[in-house]
Design a protein that fits this description.
This protein has 179 residues and is an all-alpha fold. The protein has a single domain, classed as Vanadium-containing Chloroperoxidase, domain 2. Helices cover 75% and strands 0% of the residues. The protein contains six helices and no strands. The longest helix has 59 residues. It is globular, with a radius of gyration of 17 Å.
């Protein structure tokens, strides 16, 4: 067997093992409910409210950051939908009966995690302008990322790639001119 094929198979096995380990927490109803709420908030609701709050709290600078978030959000959706369309990776709960589904998926594919992509991207954009928000946004972003694996919706590699794409987009968006 080719070395690359073996490496991919080992990575997939590790990805599944980690997914199963995180997903064990989902059998506890309070944990499942908590992370389902975090995931629901991370689906946009938290970020939309933040985009409205920033101009109220920070004036014109807050509006600029909110506009950057909106532009980045559009770019993030386009990128993650393109990757999902190209890869068609099934969600963990669909691929392994041992994975407990903790919340309804938004679509059928898992790679990459759009929730994580947007959480990382928005957190970096906001914290670049207003570092004091990090105390709230960094823990929330980590919980969003964890929720996706705990709820059986993503593999850890889906979350890692989502975070990396979010990082790249967060650094690209400030290069865009905003009037």
């Amino acid at each position: 067997m080719d070395w690359n094929v073996q490496s991919v198979q080992k990575m997939a096995a590790l990805d599944l093992a980690l997914c199963l380990r995180f997903n064990r927490a989902c059998v506890f109803a309070p944990v499942r409910r908590f992370f389902a709420v975090v995931s629901w908030l991370g689906n946009g609701k938290f970020w939309y409210v933040l985009m409205l709050v920033l101009p109220l709290v920070h004036g014109r600078e807050g509006l600029d950051v909110s506009l950057r978030m909106a532009l980045a959000g559009i770019a993030g959706v386009l990128v993650y939908k393109l990757i999902k369309h190209l890869t068609h990776r099934p969600r963990p709960f669909m691929a392994d009966d041992a994975i407990v589904l903790g919340a309804a998926p938004l679509d059928q594919f898992s790679f990459p995690s759009g929730h994580t992509l947007h959480a990382v991207m928005f957190t970096l954009i906001v914290c670049a302008g207003f570092p004091a928000w990090a105390w709230l946004l960094v823990p929330f972003t980590l919980m969003v990322a964890a929720s996706r694996v705990i709820l059986g919706l993503h593999y850890p590699t889906d979350v890692v790639l989502g975070a990396l794409v979010g990082l790249v987009l967060a650094f690209a968006v400030p290069l865009l001119p905003i009037a």
